[in-house]
Design brief:
Blueprint: H1 2-9, H2 15-38, H3 40-52, H4 56-69, H5 74-86, H6 90-103, H7 108-120, H8 124-137, H9 143-156, H10 160-173, H11 178-190, H12 194-204, H13 212-224, H14 228-241, H15 246-258
Length: 259
């Protein structure tokens, strides 16, 4: 955009173009001064508004303006990286997350997003290394989230025992981390440890009282353990909560096994 303004100012091929270009040159200093007066965070806020409206390119332009005024704010780099990540531009996102961490090495949120992009780029081991650094920092108030993210990378890599170990660390850090308990239950089932799986489902239940997917999964585990009487009410609840959904279809099929 700035290059376009410069070239227009240097050309006088048409009267209208020359007039517009002259106005641009004369006003550029005023526009820059106005931007500096508003400050970099003004453009970050505009970027947030544009992004919420689905105007991705406009949001990125505003962030570029913010960074042109001050490129030392790590959250601006984080936000731009998040947009790149959402737009499947992980290589660009990685560069921005790394820049945020250069400015603030203790910016664990940026580290977690960096790990996610590295995994999506086919580098799970590097992603785990990044999360390991975050754990060693010790300043992040929610270490259970780091453990959980490590567990999901292990899980997607087929390393079930490592995933389970990381999830246990997550629930040790936060016993009411219901999502971690749910993931533990699924892994334990896959490993054939049904009694432990059922206990993990029981612990996770307060966080998923109205979640059809969880209710079907727990009811299925109960059925496989020969506890159909307990599974029935959960499956009927799914039919009420989410009629006509894929979860309801699964619940209906499981109910046929009980009835």
């Amino acid at each position: 955009m700035r290059a376009g303004w410069r070239s227009t100012c240097g050309m006088g091929l048409l009267l209208a173009a020359a007039w517009l270009g002259g106005w641009g040159c004369a006003s550029r200093g005023a526009r820059i001064a106005d931007q500096q007066k508003k400050g970099p965070l003004h453009f970050v806020r505009l970027a947030q508004l544009f992004y919420e409206q689905g105007k991705v390119n406009a949001a990125l332009e505003q962030l570029d303006r913010s960074l042109a005024l001050d490129d030392t704010l790590p959250r601006t780099w984080l936000f731009r990286g998040q947009i790149y990540s959402e737009e499947e531009r992980c290589e660009d996102a990685v560069a921005d997350f790394r820049r945020a961490l250069e400015i603030n090495p203790h910016f664990t949120e940026a580290r977690m997003y960096l790990a996610d992009c590295l995994e999506r780029l086919g580098q799970p081991d590097r992603a785990l290394e990044v999360l390991g650094v975050a754990l060693r920092d010790g300043r992040f108030p929610y270490p259970e989230k780091i453990h959980f993210n490590r567990a999901m990378i292990f899980l997607r890599s087929g390393r079930l025992d490592d995933a389970l170990a990381a999830l246990r660390l997550a629930v040790e850090a936060q016993p009411r981390y219901y999502l971690a308990h749910f993931e533990m239950a699924k892994i334990l089932e896959e490993l054939g440890r049904s009694a432990e799986a059922l206990e993990a489902y029981r612990t996770a239940a307060p966080g998923f009282a109205k979640d059809p997917g969880f209710l079907v999964a727990r009811a299925g585990a109960l059925l496989r353990a020969g506890r159909g009487a307990e599974a029935g009410p959960m499956l009927r609840r799914v039919l009420i909560l989410s009629p006509g959904s894929p979860a309801a279809e699964k619940a209906s099929r499981l109910l046929e096994l009980i009835d």
